[in-house]
Amino acid sequence: MNPSHFALQARDLVSTAALTRGFVRSKGLYFCRPRHGFEDVFFLDLLRPSHDAFKVAVGIHVPMIAPKLMALGNADLPSPILFGYLGQLSGGAQKWYRFKGSMDLNIAMDAMWTDFNVQAEPWLRKFNTIEEIAWAFYEQRLKENLVEGKMRRPDPIAWAIYGWLLAQSGKAEESHEWLNKAQDEVTKPIYVKRGRIYSEKIAGARQIPRADPEQRLKEILEKEIL
Fold first, then answer.
1. Closest Cα to residue 69, out of 158, 167, 175, 184?
2. pLDDT for 47 beyond 70
């Protein structure tokens, strides 16, 4: 089955079943279910070009900060702040749903919805407020790995997202701290030597521009932080 035919058939199959669960199609194979201040989302990702199979990502989307994420270069889609694939949500590996034709696709969809009910729905029900989403984002993207003792590399985009989530949950002072931290980071020069990135000038290193998303973040924060 070619990708375009899959997308059309899958769209029709998923749309009907999704409606019974409160989801409506956004774009393509993206589906959203509105809640208070955020949305449950899921989307189908097709394995191409050598196999007929798809996987399903499930996540949380926060519309109030979506314009900022789009300004950083994200696609005009309900990009999830938190997400995991079916299979992963039950503690395993992401699951591929394989098919060879229309009949197999129906069977694969039935299997997907069974997993969705068992894995995705309980996971989504963990989140009821923006504050809970912010805390989960912190645990997933910002908290140091205390078990293995690993330190995370500076991630000003994640810091900014966390700051925006805090602002949406009413924590203005904490939000300002994280946004200032992100702004401080993206204004620092960075250097490269033999393919390694350094935050300080060392012998033989040359200064390089920050990646486009970080440059866009700098522009956003310059307007936000007075």
1. 158
2. no
Assign 74 to helix, strand or coil.
coil
Copy the structure tokens of residue 97.
């749903």
Query: pLDDT tens digits for 193-208?
Result: 887 887 778 887 888 8
Tokens of 150: 């690993």
92 by Cβ neighbours in 10 Å (0-12 / 13-18 / 19+) ranks as: exposed
Residue 74 confidence (pLDDT) above 80? no
Q: What separation, in Å, do the N-terminal and C-terminal C-alpha atoms of the chain show? A: 54
Token readout for 49 is 């070009």
**Distance separating alpha carbons of residues 218 and 68, to the nearest angstrom:** 12
pLDDT over 70 (residue 130): yes
For all residues of the chain together, what is the average pLDDT? 87
**What are the tens digits of pLDDT across the range 88-118?**
998 899 999 988 877 788 899 999 999 999 9
Contact 60, 83 (CB under 8 A): yes
**110-119 long-range Cβ contacts below 8 angstroms, 24+ apart:** 112/56, 112/86, 113/17, 115/56, 115/86, 115/87, 115/90, 116/42, 116/56, 116/58, 116/86, 118/90, 119/58, 119/86, 119/87, 119/89, 119/90
In order of 25, 27, 78, 84, the CA distances from 30 in angstroms are: 6, 5, 8, 15
85 forms beta bridges with 57
Sign of the CA dihedral with 42 first, then 143, 73, and 171 last: positive
